[in-house]
Every structure is written in structure tokens, then in C-alpha cells.
């Protein structure tokens, strides 16, 4: 043991990292640690600038940011919480909020952020669980159908509007005609190469919902039976499978540039691709609402949001940072710097790209109108994974009804297992 | 020094020299494993780390329960016998609550469906052993062939050893990504090459997307990746075989094949046994390739036990259940090892 | 020498056939590596343009070093590289000492229970790391460690975010001990008995008799443990959220996270692979001879 400790000490001397605890700095500011998931370079640098502006705006708080790979983000949080090393501020993927709350990692934001500030945010930007607010989004991401006007003109397709999105029959007809032109091996790109459950749940739950199904019964939040495997869900599953059978979608795209290179006529993807697509298609680019499969168009709302950890020694400082981020001018700034969708009307109005007439306004309107959050339950990971495997199996030829039944059983069990322990009471605010 | 003091001294040295390693193994392997074992009796979740409550054998029951339904045919369309959907039957009957179909077969006019509470685990178990049965002979044969080749006394063989060994040094993640690209149905080089060699008669094969080809494709890649190392071990074995045996065989007029069969193989018996064991252990732990290349698909066709354990334990945050998968799997392998050792002892008697 | 052997008896045609076979196999073994290397100098468009031809493996057409510039310019790849080097060398170095001593004790010293320990080792070989990673994480998250805070050395409450959390759990290795054990058992007992008669202590026997005659197995264990450490991924992702102790493999994941510029990914992969391959090529004669000479014969 002695030898080991010696080695450990030696190593620590050389390389160990300073802990994540809060401390007063030489300049008299109090240090707040911040963890964020690794996003694209653009989003991260926009985030760094926002921190710099926050620090310039006051003299009490300093923020030390740390970027973590998305792959193990949850495990990192878990490990850190066990070790008492949770940062003060952290980003949380909105559907994970319930799980983190149940585990006691997050502090309610009620009272820390004025109700008036919260009220101006879109509902999808508020991470709520059991009646309390735990996270706030500074921006949202949104999915849309991207296509080229020329491709639609060629087959004489109607250009849909917010009020009249394509119907299921229209959408099917258009995809069939695009395929029939012979110009596209697979006319629609659904990013099926993405091996992460997150993407499949985020992208295809809205379709399931538009068909009339859902991941869980939202009325009770206690089970999936009937929602995930009912007649509407079965229609969705059958249709989803047919996309692959009819050769409209590639089961596994070799890369995500099918639309940019013109291999695909249409892509169903997020606003983060808009810059590349604009570059590739120029004025020919159309950003369209996803189809209305029967119960209205739905788009997944709720992206990565900000939360304060339950162990944060200076929640007031952390809240000051969040209040700063939620200022309309900051929301607008983030939107323009990183191309993310603003979450308030006031923020959008100040943004160059998202104000009325701005080049990305379409996304803001889409989100205002169609955004729906994923279910807030601690079992979300299991739900997401089950849905992901059901969809993969359906795409690979499994009977859709069987696949959805399997997922339903798994989800019902996961919800029962996860239980819903009462939310922990907020600790006393020190300071 | 007296005998007893000498023995005490020896014991102290023995303890001192094996101590650090045994301490490390205990702290970082045995204790975590016992911890995993303890977790299997709880409902511990990954995120809510203080949730662990004792639930008895529930995880084992969910993992291992098997049942069956027998169905009589109903008059179907066009005279063919039809059966009610198994899922409708199981979901309606409380006795079969939680069971899902695993596989079915005909029994006269009736249809028998085997049910399991976790059919994916059973599939994964079969897939894992299927993979081992594919990759172990393939990889060992490949390694032996390579070893014979680079041991033939040809010029340049030192360089070629390095070439054959080179995939071993590449990270499995990297190798898997590269091969995913090579296996791609439309753009992958393997299909292009096949089409070229067959003058276009072999159409594009959906290697990783087909139930019949996905696991063999992964096995092929894994054997390719690992064979270089076993090649070196076989080389060691080959160089331990006395040249005189070959000369004697030659004088007796043995052909190359006879020499291989009667001199080389017996001479390599120990080596072959060692290589088989090492390769099998690695094969039974298959995870990375599956995770990167197929995520267990298509239709669980490449799901393995370790993949299942990680899916349930980490991705779905049910570490109690993930641990149960791992513990049951460990028990199965340990039983296999014990059986193999018992057989070996009987053989050698 | 083997069945295919002994120059004198080989016919010219057999020799030719063997050469052809060796070269063909060499191509099979090296083509993914060439693919990686070539793609790392191309843009996505170029990669796809060449994917159907031999050009996928040969650097022809438009080449660019932009991928390397991007990879080296974004993120702390050099820092991560240094971390990986430290983790790998320290684990291998400590592992050689600790594991060989344990094997020495098991194979060459008489003590009660050593047979039980030896057979336990075989069972431990079977435990896949994935199976214990979460419990191990729960454990190291609670182990007291050392760290810096405000310039002072302090006792920390856990091992997270350090280099040693990536080193210490992997020093003792059942497979390494097993390899050493197999080899040490094959060394004739007369050697150390002679030394004992001359009054040597067991540790002297270890240093002056066993180690000098076991260089091959030391090389084998170094290669195996070194590769495993260099390529480690799952564990650091869980236990090292910060950047300061992040290894190279996790750094690469950052590129998979938000790019499908295959060129970037391949450039990163090349940077990870080339040092190891270079080390192997430089030391390969020594490596190969060592492994061949080592007792990994079962």
C-alpha cells in the first residue's frame, strides 16, 4: 500500500487536476464551475463569448467552463455526484431532467429566476418535473424538412405552408415521384446512420405523435400500453417500415451529406444543418414544416438546457449567470452566433436571423407552433432505448406490431421500476 | 537459519512479492465483481444512485424465465392454417405477463412458441457462442497459416510479419469504423471488388444489414484484426519443433501434408490449446465491434451478451439488471471452463 | 522450420506460389490501414469519388493536409497525446514489476494456497472489464486521493479526473500474471536451486536468474498491456470528465461527436495509430523474436 500511495502522490504532484470546488480567486471573484456537453465548435465558442460577456457585466462571479464528451456525459455526472464533485452549473439534455432530479442532482430554480423571466420562455424551454422548474433553455433546436425548390417543381409538387403542411398521402406521393425520376437512389435522408438512441427518439417520436400515438400515455405518465402499440402507433410503424421497403430511405447512409451532394432530394434534419445546406443549395433551398400525419404536425422541443446542481455552494451566482443568459439580447446573440433557435419572442425580435423576415425565421415559427416536449419521466433513457430498438427492428423488417408490443412491455416495466420518488426538497441556500 | 525460520522468511517473501498484484486484483477486480453480484439483488439504477432496494431474485427471474404456448390452428384464409398472434395471447393471459416470443416450431397441427421474459438475452447468448464458433477456428487457422508462411525461410518474411501484425496495433474502434466503411453496401470497396472480380454477377451485398451476413462479417473482421498476434504465438510453437522429426518424416517418404498432420500438429498441441483458450475468451467478450458497426442489429442478429449488459446496465441506466446479465454470463463461462478441465483430466488419464 | 520449409527441397514453382500468396495476404492485411492513411489526406468528396477504385488505397488525385491542420488546431490533441503516453508507459512499467513478482511467487516459491490462487487467476481472466466498470466507478469515486487545490497538495474525496485513476486499477493484471506464470514455470528449477545453494535470497534469484532469462515474456506483456492501455476508451469516458487528464482515444470521440468529415476522423485515427505502428516497426525484430522466444506456448 505504501508504494501505491507514494506513486499516487507523485502522480498527483505532477498531473492531478484541481478539484471542482468553488473558491475565491485572486481578483476577489468567486469561482463557479460549469460543465457543458461537447457541442459543435460554433456553439461552444458562442458559449465561451457569452461567459466572457457575463464576467464583464459584473465583478462578483467568475466561471470556469469544462467541455465533456456527449458519449459519457451522464456517467460523468453520476460519478461526479458520487464523489461530491458536481459542478455548480451544468447543461442537461431536457429529457434527462426528470432522471437527474430524482437522483437529487439538481436544485429547483423556483425563486432563483423571476417568474416573469420564465414566463416569456417557450414551454419547451422549461425543464419541469413534478411541478418545479429545474432547467431553462437559452435556445432550442428544431427539425424541419429541407429540400430544393427545383426538385419539387420538377415533379409538380405543392409547396407546403405552416397552415397547410403536407398530408401523409401527399408526402408519400411526392417521395414516390422523386424516386421515380431516377435522379435519387434514396430521395429522403432520415440520418439513419446515427447510431444513437437520442437521435431516433428525437426525430421519430414527433412522427409517432403526429400519427396519434406517443411514447407513453401522457395523461397518466404511468404506462405505454395503448399509446406506443395502439392502432395509431401500428400505422406509424407500418408506414415507417414501408419507407425502407419502397427504397425511399437508405437504411444506413454512408455519411450525412446526402442532401448537400444531391444524392437525396430531401432531408429531415435540424436547424444546425441550415448553414451547410444554404451553401450547397443557395436560393433553391426550402425549409418546410414536417408533414401532418393525421393529428397535426409535431416537432420535438427541448434541447440542452441549463441547470444548477444541488450541491452548488453559490446558487445565487449560478442563477445570476442563468438570468444573464435569458436576457433577450443574450438569447438573440446566441441565436445569431450559433444558429440556434431563440426561445422567446423578445429574443427573436432582437436577432438578425430570427426576427420577422430574417433568414432563419422559419425555424422560430415552426417551433412556436409545433414544438412538443418529450415525456418528463426518470425512465426516459429506457423508453428512448426501447423505442430506438423497436424502430431499428422495424426498419430491418420485423413485424411493426410485434416490435412496438415489445417496446411497450419494456417501457411499462421501466416506468414501474424507476418509480417516481418525491422530488427532494431544496437545500438551504448558503451565502 | 532454522528450517522453520527459513519457511517463515520464505512466506514473507512470497507475500511481499505477490502482495501488490493480489492487492490490486482484489481491490480493482474482485471487489467490483462482488459489488456487481450484490447489485443483482437490488433495483439499483445508474443515475438515482441511492435507489438500491433489495428485490430478491427478481432480476434473475426476469432474465431467465422461460415458458411456452401451444396453439391450435384456426381456419385461415386460402385453406392454410392460421394462428392467433402470439403477442395477443401472451398479453391477454396474466400467466404469461412479461413473456415475449423467442422462437417457435410446429408440433403436428399445433404451433409451439417458446416464450422468454428476456428473449434478447437468449438471442445474445446464442449469437455470442455462434460468433465464438465462427471466429475461433477462423482466426486460429488464419494465424497458423500465416505462421507457416512466414516461417518458410523466404526472403522478406521479417517485414511481412510486421505487416500481418499491423492490424493488432490498430485500435478496435478505429478498425471497426474503417471496416464499416469498407462493408458499406453501395460505396464500400468490398462490394466493388466483388463485383469487379465476378464481372458484375455478384450484386451488392448488404453485409452489416443482413441477418445472415452481419455476424460473419464481424467475425471475419475480428479474425483479421487479431490473427497477427496468434501468428506470433504459433511461430514460437513452430520453432520449438525439432527439425529432426521433419527429416525423419522426409526419409520415410512423407508428403508435405503428412508431415504437417503427423509432425507439425502434434508438435503444436500445447500451443493450439493455449491459442484456442485465449481466442475464445476474447471472442466471448465481444462488444466494441458490435457497438460501433451494427448496434446489435439487424433484428438483434449481432446482439451479444456484453452488448446486452451494457445496453440494459448503462444506456438504460438499470445497472442492477446489467450486472445480472454479466454475472449469469460469468457463471456460464466458469461452468464451461470447469467442464473442459474435467474432460481434459479424463482424457489424459 | 516447418512443413513449407528448407530451401534445398523447395521447387521454384512452390517458392513462387508462396511469394505470391504472401504478397496477396500482405495486401489484405494492410488495405484498411492504407485506406485510413489515404482518406486522411482527402476531403469527403474526394473520399467518395475514389471509393470505387484502387484509388481508395493509393494517394492519388487531390490531396490535402487540411484534415491534419484541423485536427491539430482544434482541441488539445498534443496534451491528450502526452496523457496517453504517460498512462501507457506508467501502467506497463509498474505492471511489469508487480505482475512478474506475483508470477514469480506463484511459480517459484513454496507457500500454502498458491495453487488455489493460480486457479483463481484463470477464473479472473474471464471477467470482462465491461461487466465491472460501473461498480469499479462507484468504488474509485469514493477512494481518497490526492490533488491540487489552489496550489496546495490536498487530500481529495475521489480519484475522478486524474491520470492515476486511469493507471492504478490496471497495473495488476490477471492475464499478465498468467503469461509470466506460464513462462516462469518452464524455466528449469536447477538454475535457482544453484543460486539458493550459493546463499541467494528469493529476490536475488528473481533479479539475477529469472528476469534475465525471461526477457521475451516481458516484451510480450509490454505489447499486450501497452496496446490495451493505449486504446482504452470506456473507462476514461466515465471517470475523467475534465480535459486535463483526458487520453487520446476520448479526444478522438470528440470528432465523431460533431463531424462526419471522414477525413478529419481518419486523420485523428492515423495520429493515434502511427506512433504505435512506428514503435512496432522499429522494434519489430526484437518484438517478434521475443514473443517467439517467450513461453506463451501453453
Q: If you average the pLDDT of chain C, what whole number results?
A: 80
What is the CA–CA distance across the termini of chain C? 20 Å
Low-confidence stretches of chain B: none
CATH architecture of the domain at 76-248 and 283-293 in chain C: Orthogonal Bundle
GO cellular component, one term (chain B): plasma membrane
Keywords (chain B): Cell membrane, Membrane, Transmembrane, Transmembrane helix, Transport
Pfam family, one (chain B): BPD_transp_1
Subcellular location (chain B): Cell membrane
What does this entry look like structurally?
The complex is a heterotrimer of chains A (431), B (349) and C (298). Chain A has 16 helices and 14 strands. With 431 residues, chain A is of the alpha/beta class. Chain A folds into two domains: 24-141 and 302-373, D-Maltodextrin-Binding Protein, domain 2; 143-299 and 377-418, D-Maltodextrin-Binding Protein, domain 2 (3-Layer(aba) Sandwich), CATH 3.40.190.10. In chain A, a hairpin with a 2-residue loop joins strand 4 (126-129) and strand 5. The two termini of chain A are 41 Å apart. Chain B is mainly alpha-helical and 349 residues long. The longest helix of chain B is centred in the N-terminal third of the chain and has 37 residues, at 3-39. Chain B is globular and about 75 Å long. The mean pLDDT of chain B is 85. Chain C has a domain at 76-248 and 283-293: MetI-like fold (Orthogonal Bundle). Chain C has a two-stranded antiparallel ribbon with strand order 1-2. The mean pLDDT of chain C is 80. The interface between B and C is large, with 107 and 94 residues.
Amino acid at each position: 500500500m505504501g508504494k501505491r500511495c507514494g506513486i499516487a502522490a507523485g502522480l498527483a504532484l505532477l498531473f492531478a487536476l484541481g478539484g471542482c470546488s468553488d473558491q475565491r480567486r485572486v481578483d476577489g471573484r468567486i469561482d463557479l464551475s460549469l460543465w457543458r456537453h461537447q457541442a459543435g465548435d460554433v456553439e461552444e465558442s458562442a458559449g465561451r463569448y457569452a461567459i466572457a460577456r457575463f464576467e464583464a457585466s459584473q465583478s462578483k462571479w467568475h466561471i470556469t467552463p469544462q467541455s465533456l464528451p456527449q458519449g459519457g456525459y451522464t456517467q460523468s455526472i453520476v460519478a461526479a455526484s458520487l464523489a461530491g464533485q458536481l459542478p455548480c452549473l451544468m447543461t442537461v439534455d431536457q429529457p434527462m431532467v426528470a432522471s437527474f432530479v430524482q437522483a437529487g442532482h439538481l436544485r429547483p430554480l423556483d425563486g432563483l429566476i423571476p417568474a416573469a423571466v420564465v414566463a416569456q420562455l417557450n414551454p419547451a424551454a422549461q425543464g419541469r418535473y413534478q411541478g418545479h422548474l429545474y432547467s431553462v433553455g437559452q435556445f432550442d433546436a428544431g427539425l424541419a424538412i429541407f429540400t430544393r425548390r427545383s426538385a419539387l417543381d420538377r415533379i409538380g409538387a405543392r409547396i407546403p405552408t405552416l397552415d397547410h403542411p403536407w398530408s401523409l398521402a401527399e408526402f408519400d406521393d411526392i417521395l414516390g415521384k422523386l424516386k421515380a425520376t431516377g435522379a435519387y437512389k434514396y430521395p429522403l435522408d432520415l440520418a439513419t446512420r446515427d447510431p444513437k438512441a437520442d437521435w431516433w427518439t428525437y426525430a421519430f417520436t414527433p412522427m409517432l405523435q403526429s400519427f396519434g400515438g406517443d411514447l407513453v400515455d401522457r395523461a397518466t405518465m404511468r404506462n405505454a400500453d395503448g399509446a406506443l402499440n395502439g392502432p395509431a402507433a401500428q400505422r406509424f410503424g407500418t408506414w415507417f417500415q414501408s419507407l425502407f421497403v419502397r427504397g425511399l430511405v437508405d437504411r444506413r447512409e454512408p455519411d450525412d451529406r446526402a442532401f448537400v451532394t444531391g444524392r437525396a432530394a430531401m432531408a429531415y434534419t435540424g436547424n444546425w444543418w441550415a448553414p451547410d445546406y444554404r451553401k450547397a443549395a443557395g436560393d433553391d433551398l426550402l425549409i418546410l414544416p414536417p408533414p401532418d400525419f393525421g393529428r397535426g404536425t409535431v416537432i420535438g422541443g427541448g434541447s440542452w438546457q441549463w441547470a444548477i446542481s444541488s450541491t452548488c455552494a453559490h446558487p445565487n451566482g449560478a442563477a445570476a449567470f442563468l438570468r444573464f443568459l435569458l436576457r433577450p439580447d443574450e438569447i438573440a446573440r446566441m441565436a445569431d452566433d450559433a444558429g440556434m433557435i431563440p426561445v422567446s419572442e423578445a429574443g427573436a425580435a432582437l436577432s438578425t436571423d430570427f426576427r420577422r423576415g430574417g433568414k432563419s425565421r422559419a425555424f422560430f415559427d415552426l417551433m412556436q407552433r409545433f414544438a412538443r416536449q418529450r415525456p418528463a419521466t426518470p425512465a426516459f433513457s429506457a423508453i428512448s432505448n426501447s423505442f430506438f430498438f423497436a424502430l431499428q427492428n422495424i426498419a430491418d423488417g420485423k413485424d411493426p406490431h410485434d416490435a412496438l408490443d415489445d417496446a411497450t412491455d419494456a417501457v411499462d416495466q421501466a416506468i414501474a421500476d424507476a418509480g417516481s420518488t418525491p422530488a427532494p426538497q431544496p437545500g438551504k441556500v448558503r451565502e | 537459519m532454522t528450517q522453520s525460520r527459513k519457511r517463515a522468511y520464505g512466506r514473507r517473501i512470497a507475500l511481499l512479492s505477490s502482495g501488490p498484484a493480489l492487492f490490486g486484483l482484489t481491490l480493482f477486480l474482485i471487489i467490483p465483481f462482488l459489488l456487481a453480484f450484490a447489485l443483482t439483488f437490488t433495483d439499483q439504477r445508474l443515475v438515482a444512485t441511492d435507489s438500491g432496494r433489495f428485490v430478491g431474485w427478481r432480476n434473475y427471474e426476469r432474465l431467465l424465465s422461460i415458458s411456452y404456448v401451444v396453439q391450435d390452428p384456426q381456419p385461415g384464409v386460402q385453406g392454410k392454417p392460421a394462428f392467433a398472434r402470439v403477442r395477443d395471447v401472451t398479453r391477454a393471459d396474466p400467466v404469461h405477463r412479461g413473456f415475449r416470443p423467442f422462437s417457435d416450431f410446429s408440433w403436428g397441427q399445433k404451433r409451439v412458441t417458446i416464450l422468454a421474459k428476456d428473449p434478447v438475452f437468449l438471442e445474445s447468448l446464442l449469437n455470442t457462442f455462434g460468433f465464438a464458433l465462427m471466429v475461433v477456428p477462423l482466426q486460429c487457422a488464419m494465424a497458423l497459416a500465416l505462421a507457416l508462411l512466414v516461417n518458410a525461410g523466404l526472403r522478406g518474411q521479417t517485414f511481412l510479419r510486421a505487416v500481418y501484425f499491423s492490424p493488432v496495433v490498430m485500435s478496435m474502434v478505429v478498425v471497426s469504423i474503417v471496416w464499416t466503411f469498407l462493408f458499406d453496401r453501395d460505396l464500400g470497396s468490398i462490394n466493388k471488388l466483388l463485383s469487379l472480380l465476378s464481372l458484375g454477377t455478384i450484386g451488392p451485398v448488404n453485409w452489416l444489414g443482413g441477418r445472415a451476413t452481419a455476424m460473419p462479417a464481424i467475425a471475419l473482421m475480428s479474425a483479421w484484426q487479431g490473427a497477427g498476434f496468434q501468428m506470433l504465438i504459433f511461430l514460437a510453437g513452430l520453432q520449438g519443433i525439432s527439425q529432426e522429426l521433419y527429416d525423419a518424416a522426409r526419409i520415410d517418404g512423407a508428403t508435405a501434408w503428412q508431415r504437417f498432420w503427423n509432425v507439425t500438429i502434434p508438435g503444436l498441441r500445447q500451443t493450439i490449446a493455449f491459442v484456442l483458450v485465449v481466442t475464445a475468451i476474447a471472442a466471448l467478450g465481444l462488444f466494441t465491434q458490435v457497438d460501433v458497426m451494427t448496434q446489435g442489429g439487424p433484428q438483434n442478429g449481432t446482439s451479444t451478451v456484453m452488448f446486452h449488459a451494457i445496453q440494459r446496465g448503462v444506456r438504460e441506466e438499470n445497472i442492477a439488471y446489467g450486472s445480472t446479465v454479466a454475472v449469469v454470463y460469468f457463471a456460464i463461462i466458469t461452468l464451461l471452463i470447469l467442464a473442459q478441465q474435467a474432460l481434459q483430466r479424463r482424457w489424459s488419464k | 522450420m516447418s512443413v513449407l520449409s528448407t530451401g534445398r527441397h523447395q521447387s521454384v514453382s512452390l517458392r513462387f506460389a508462396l511469394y505470391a500468396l504472401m504478397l496477396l495476404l500482405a495486401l489484405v492485411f494492410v488495405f484498411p490501414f492504407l485506406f485510413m492513411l489515404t482518406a486522411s489526406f482527402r476531403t469527403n468528396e474526394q473520399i467518395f469519388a475514389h471509393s470505387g477504385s484502387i484509388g481508395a488505397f493509393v494517394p492519388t488525385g487531390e490531396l490535402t493536409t487540411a484534415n491534419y491542420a484541423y485536427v491539430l488546431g482544434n482541441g488539445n490533441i498534443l496534451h491528450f497525446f502526452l496523457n496517453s503516453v504517460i498512462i501507457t508507459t506508467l501502467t506497463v512499467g509498474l505492471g511489469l514489476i508487480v505482475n512478474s513478482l506475483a508470477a514469480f511467487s506463484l511459480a517459484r516459491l513454496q507457500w500454502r494456497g498458491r495453487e488455489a490462487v493460480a486457479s483463481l487467476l484463470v477464473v479472473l481472466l474471464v471477467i470482462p472489464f465491461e461487466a465491472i466498470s460501473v461498480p469499479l466507478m462507484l468504488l474509485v469515486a469514493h477512494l481518497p486521493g490526492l490533488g491540487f487545490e489552489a496550489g496546495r497538495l490536498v487530500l481529495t474525496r475521489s480519484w475522478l479526473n486524474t491520470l492515476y485513476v486511469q493507471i492504478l486499477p490496471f497495473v495488476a493484471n490477471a492475464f499478465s500474471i498468467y503469461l509470466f506464470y506460464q513462462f516462469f514455470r518452464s524455466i528449469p528449477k536447477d538454475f535457482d536451486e544453484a543460486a539458493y545453494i550459493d546463499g541467494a535470497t528469493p529476490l536475488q534469484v528473481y533479479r539475477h536468474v529469472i528476469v534475465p532469462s525471461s526477457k521475451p515474456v516481458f516484451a510480450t506483456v509490454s505489447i499486450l498491456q501497452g496496446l490495451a492501455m493505449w486504446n482504452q476508451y470506456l473507462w476514461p469516458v466515465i471517470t475523467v470528465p475534465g480535459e486535463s487528464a483526458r487520453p487520446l482515444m476520448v479526444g478522438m470521440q470528440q470528432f465523431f461527436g460533431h463531424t462526419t468529415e471522414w477525413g478529419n476522423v481518419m486523420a485523428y485515427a492515423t495520429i493515434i495509430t502511427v506512433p504505435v505502428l512506428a514503435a512496432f516497426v522499429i522494434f519489430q525484430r526484437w518484438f517478434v523474436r521475443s514473443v517467439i522466444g517467450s513461453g506463451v506456448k501453453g
